[in-house]
Every structure is written in C-alpha cells, then in structure tokens.
Amino acid sequence: MNLFDQLDTTENQALEEISRATGPEILQQLETNYLSRKGILRGFFGQMAALPDEQKPQAGEAINRLKKVIEEKITEQRKILAAAPQTRLPEGFFDISLPGFEKVTGSFHPVYRTMQELSAIFVRLGFNIAYGPEIETEFYNFTALNIPLDHPSRDAFDTFYLSDSSVSNTGRLLLRSHTSPVQVRIMEKTKPPLQVIVPGKVFRPDTPGPSRFPMFHQIEGLMVDENVSFANLKGILSLFIREFFGSETRMRFRPSFFPFTEPSAEVDISCVICGGTGDRCPVCRGEGWLEILGAGMVHPKVFEAVNYDSEKYTGFAFGLGVERMAMLKYSINDIRLFTENHLKFLEQF
C-alpha cells in the first residue's frame, strides 16, 4: 500500500474514531495519537524521503490536508459534546460495587442528657419545670433567701458581680450562684400549693479542677403546701434516688446548715462504684458513701420575703449538681471533660 492509499485509510479511520468519542478525555487521546510529534501523521512525513522527487510536493500537500481535516473534526466533536445534555442515571439507580458511606449519628451531650433524665423523674413525681434569668440581683440571689450580708457566699471571691453599685432597691447585678432565686420569683407570683423544679446554669468564680468549674448546672426543687413535712421530702428523694441510681441504692441524711432551710441536711447515697463497701474505692475514699445533694424545710424567713403565711404553709427544698450526677452515673472523674469537647469522650454517649 503506497503512501496515498495509507492517507485515505487513516482519514476514514480517524474520522470514525473521533465521531464515536464520548468524552473530552478520549478526544485528547485521539489528538495525541494522530497529531503529536510522535503521532501517525509525523510518520507519514518520514516516508516522503522514499518517494520520487516529483511526488513529494503532492504528498506533503495531502498530509497537511489530512492534518487540517482531523483538527477540524476534533474541534467539531468537542462542541457537540459540550452542548449535549449531561447523562443522568435512572432515578433510584445505585452502583452496588461502590463502598458504602457511614452515617455519623449525633447524640445529646451527657450533661444535657442527665438533666433531661433528672427532670423527667421529677415530672413523673408531680413537679412542674420552671426557668428564670441567669443575671440576678442581690435580693433574689441572697436577701430573699435569708443569706445575711456577712455570709461568705456574698463575697466577691464567691460571686460574679456585674456592677459595683446597686441598680435598684434589689441590689447589685450578678450571675446567679444557684437556681434558688427562681423559686423566690415563682413564690412571688404563685400562691400555694406549688411543686416545681428549676434546672439551669449557675456561676461561681472557682478555679477549674477535676471537681470544680466556674459554670455548671443545677436542679433545685421546691414543694409548698399545708402540712408538708420532712417525711414528704424523704419520700420524694428516696423515690428519685432509686429511680436514677437503681433500686439497691441506699440513702442517708446528715445534719447540715443552709440559711434558706431549717432543719437542713446533706443527702448521701451508697457508693455507686464499690456498692457501699468502701473496699479500696478511690471514689468514696473507703467511706462507702457519696454526697449528692442538699435539702431541708424552707425557712420561715424565706416565706416572709414572698408574703407567704409561715404559720399556715410549710415546704421543702433541695438542690443538686447535674454534672455531679452525670459523673457518678457514667463514672467520669473530671468535670472539665464536659466542656473540652473532645469527640473521643462525647462519642461514648
């Protein structure tokens, strides 16, 4: 087959291959095969040396014509592909040979989860949920709760004050150090009987450590009615502790002091780690008991501040730290883990 016959065969083959090209990558490869320095057309120029002198100009013209035809066809096919609509897979189609994608499932933060669980228990026991402002005044945070001016908790080392002087007759502004001020606000507006819990953030200027943090969460509880007694308090807390920690958990009361309750008590439970044996337990330090909350009967002075008749009504109050409960339930040994946002820690819940 002479050179001119080869050119005709190559033209037919090139045009057919270019017409069948379905993507820019294929066109690029065909362009390289035919038109590059090492392509098919470059080889035809090398064959011209064997031709008679009178045929060489005719052969060169034929090769250049074929080059132009191939270039134009490639350009035309590129335009056709660019204008064509994108191929869409049928609805519902999927390639079963592809690897799957793992769906990451979110979860509630352990503190929020614990607060929801605690609140749900008290709701089942007949308590309503109430909320209040995190920025308070001295009256609601201290005075109305029978906390005197010389009490250590009113010192600037124990409370985040937001103003140096009184903003009204209710005193200076501060970040609440407990959720008890909400109880005062509720009693101001509501006549007994009432039964509420108050979950929320509280703030104290503590140096962060394994058991301390400047911001944490509390749940305070309050019941007021005629003939409410310490026995009612014990019954409610007993049911709560058994529900949250398990039916085998034991409870005890120890005398204590809080300005807003009288009598007052600290409530302990048998250690959830060692089962109350105290045998070499690092959590209860061998005592077999863990303190979980404070409680007591509402002081008559608190009732006077909200215009309740302390001769007619009695009530009890209690308060617990949500982080403390979560640490005991999930065996967490450092409160700072709750705010450091390590996924390895949070993914456990």
Describe the structure.
The strands form two sheets. A seven-stranded mixed sheet has the order 1-4-5-9-8-7-6, with helices on both faces. With about 350 residues, the chain is of the alpha+beta class. Helix content is about 35%, strand content about 20%. Helix 1 runs parallel beside helix 4, helix 2 packs antiparallel against helix 4 and helix 5 (about 110-125) crosses helix 10. The mean pLDDT is about 90. The chain has eleven helices and nine strands.
What do the pLDDT scores average to? 88
Q: What is the CA-based Rg, rounded?
A: 41 Å
Query: Cα distance, first to last residue?
Result: 79 Å
Query: How many individual β-strands?
Result: 9
How many helices? Answer: 11
Question: Could you say which overall geometry the principal axes of the C-alpha atoms support?
Answer: rod-shaped
Biggest β-sheet strands, sense, barrel? 7 strands, mixed
Which percent range describes the beta-strand content?
15-25%
Strand order across the biggest sheet?
A: 1-4-5-9-8-7-6
Element order, helices and strands? HHHHHEEHEHEEHEEEHEHH
* Poorly predicted tracts of residues: none
Given helix and strand content, the structural type is: alpha+beta
